[in-house]
Specification:
The structure is a homotetramer. Chain A has two domains: about 45 residues, Homeodomain-like (Arc Repressor Mutant, subunit A, Orthogonal Bundle); about 160 residues, Orthogonal Bundle (Tetracycline Repressor, domain 2). The C terminus of chain A is likely disordered. The radius of gyration of chain A is 20 Å and the shape is elongated. With about 220 residues, chain A is mostly helical. The interface between C and D is medium-sized, with 31 and 32 residues. Chain B binds a DNA duplex (21 and 21 nucleotides) through helix 3.
DNA sequence: CATGAATGAGTATTCATTCAT
DNA sequence: TATGAATGAATACTCATTCAT
């Protein structure tokens, strides 16, 4: 009825946000253009005013997520003046923050809810996250607190296992379980990075925040 | 035109094989019943002579893969008279063999090419693979060659990272890269399981076979 | 498995019976050839050994019902030596018996569960039932117990209303309701035929039988 | 090709009209969505722009017919200030008008061209038409021109027989036959309602209109 | 007489996309 | 910028019928 005209930027943004939410909820394939415009309360035609096609929209979203991810990661990676532990923690924070922005990307390593996203992301993420993490590991080796001959592979394997185990944790809300998991993660990390026990004690500090983060991830199926 | 009548078992098998191949190539959603029957050169109706629906077909495939997986894993898990290293190796062999049977399941930890498969498989695999692996780790601890306080979590994290890194290796055919990866894997495993360096030397023996396996995985995009 | 070879007549009969039952349960359109052969436990091909097509089967069934109906009616109509009341009663009995044979035909006036049956039957039934009833009315007029200028139309209207109201009664099993209905029917009939009150007292005798008949009609949805 | 955009109301109406016509011609089951859109000269998708499913369309049609029927009947039933004869006549007019709107409903008592329609309608019609007619009969009894102990049953039986005999008349166009039929109907009605001969003389006035009505009903089988 | 594998035309439904207003 | 009616290709599934064995 009421024809509300927004600025093009805002509208586009609104489309992007709505689509991301719906992609998260249903996956790309199972999200229809109708669902998007209905949730926004606008007409179908408007969608094609802003995007060439549904895939165009996807591309834009993926590009965005990649850029955001890269920025987040690079901002941490660049701080070479910080200690490797500090940078590691900030990297985890960055990843954690990314999660809030988008599930699609966060679960980059696992959630292949839709192949198309996956492909684009995988290569991109591997090009920024892994090198950044690798660099931190190398820094740690130089600092003498880490010890491994395979910094790159360790980065990959570690990111992979934490991402997956984190995935498993998503359903859990019992703080006890989470704390046990974090303690394990510290142990596991120290072994993998070749660090002395206790080196990565910041994990436990990180735990509480993680609990909250995980908490916020849950309310996923609460839509109408 | 030419009316070729096969035995129902063969035909059903043919459907299953064809469908699995196509699901691998395009995912469940993007594989149409038409694609399946066309590739087989039979009429559409025949599909519904053998399966109640497309989803029925999927269920059968998933069930099969799960059963095969379970059988492979359980056959290894049961051999408690063997040393933990021997069983570990046999478990890897079993997993490797599963890969040949089906990508869908192999990538159980990652490929969520289709959610429906993923869900069914994840729980099933977690119920058989992880406990089996956990048990082996516990056996290793008793034997005094492993040392970790978190056998279960280690099992999960380890399977997850190897599965994923293996996933990354799929594209690679350079034996050098593969050997480097396997050397890393040995190192990583020894750290994670709390084993002395050299304990898991069987990895390198395993490498050659893995190279062949990975080789066979490649011809994937040879379709239309 | 066991290949049971029956005489062609028996088999055909079995098909006819099974089909009639299923047509009653689901209607012609919603009864598939598969349903018929499955219920009989024979192969699909056998159906086409006995019938040219599904419609061929229907034609045969309809023809049969019509012949049976005619025979039943004519056997009553022919007994011109009996009193009109006696013949009327026998006609009702005949109709009632027909009901047991087949719902499709019984409800000839109403149940147009399938058009094709309806058409064939309507003309046929009108050609035998109505004239037979008309003749009885005329006999009643001659006997001096009925009085109407429109024997044929009265026959049609009467058969129509009783058939329909009977249709409504099907669901009812309360004897009280049924008896009230029968009392009304007597009253209604006497008026319509121009008979003195009490003339058609045989209705009430007929009631108990009707109750049983109706009782047997009910278990219709008790299938698997 | 030519993209003609109509107002949604008109389009929906057009769908409804076209569908009703086709349902009348072929029955619900044998009317395909393709037939509807082809007759309208629009694309298939448009159908689903206006209706959730074919059954949704049916529901809407049935609801409409029921509402129209009810309204027609209730408008007559409410006029309690009029004489019972006047109301009876108006009720017949209302029924007659309904016929023009829809065969499906008109033949409410008989046409079970499709069970789904039948069920919904039967109960609805029974809930409005029968009570309305019953009430008129009771009014007639009070006025002293009718006499029966079973107003409700008489209403049912009468409506049933007239509806059916009317159904039979459909094919007839010979005014002589029709007039004879109407004369019979008057006689029959007077008997059934317990009225004195001549009471329902309005029937004959009604006849001419009925002839026209029946005339319009005929062109039915002019399809493929 | 009997089997059941195989056929293929038909049917409802979905959904990205276009376009006149 | 905004609307939503209109398009049409694609897709899963049904079922009467055929035919080699």
């Amino acid at each position: 009825m009421a024809r509300i005209t927004k600025s093009p930027e805002d509208r586009k943004e609104e489309f992007l946000e709505t689509a991301m939410t719906l992609f998260d909820e249903n996956g790309y394939e199972h999200t229809t253009v109708d669902m998007i415009v209905n949730r926004m309360g606008v007409a179908k035609g408007l969608f094609y005013h802003y995007f060439k096609s549904k895939e165009d929209l996807l591309d834009i979203i993926v590009d965005r997520l990649i850029v955001q991810t890269k920025e987040g990661i690079d901002s941490v990676a660049g701080k070479k003046e910080l200690s490797c532990l500090r940078r590691m923690r900030e990297l985890f924070d960055a990843i954690s923050r990314m999660r809030r922005n988008s599930y699609a990307l966060i679960d980059f390593f696992h959630e292949e809810r839709n192949r198309q996203i996956h492909h684009a992301i995988e290569s991109q993420v591997m090009k920024s996250l892994v090198p950044a993490f690798e660099e931190i590991i190398r820094a740690g080796i130089k600092e003498g607190i880490f010890d491994t001959k395979y910094p790159r592979e360790t980065a990959i394997a570690f990111l992979s296992s934490t991402s997956y185990t984190g995935h498993l944790m998503k359903g859990k809300s019992d703080p006890k379980e989470i704390r046990r998991y974090m303690r394990f993660l510290q142990d596991y990390s120290e072994k993998v990075f070749g660090a002395k026990p206790g080196t990565l004690s910041f994990y436990m500090e990180y735990t509480e925040e993680a609990i909250k983060t995980i908490d916020k991830m849950k309310p996923k199926n609460g839509g109408s």
